[in-house]
Design brief:
Layout lengths: L1 H50 L1
Length: 52
């Protein structure tokens, strides 16, 4: 029985780590999206100035 308890603990830790990694990835994606939006806005402003 001791081994199955250890397996449960290992699986639980693995799940926790996977969730943590998923959250980090989601955070990085959001940061990248925000940065891209800012760059696009900046480029649009620049292009509008050129057009005027």
């Amino acid at each position: 029985m001791g081994k199955s308890e250890t397996e449960k603990e290992v699986n639980q830790k693995r799940i926790e780590i996977e969730k943590r990694i998923e959250r980090k990835i989601e955070t990085e994606i959001k940061k990248a999206q925000y940065q891209v939006k800012r760059e696009i806005k900046r480029e649009l402003k620049r292009l509008k100035q050129i057009i005027k």
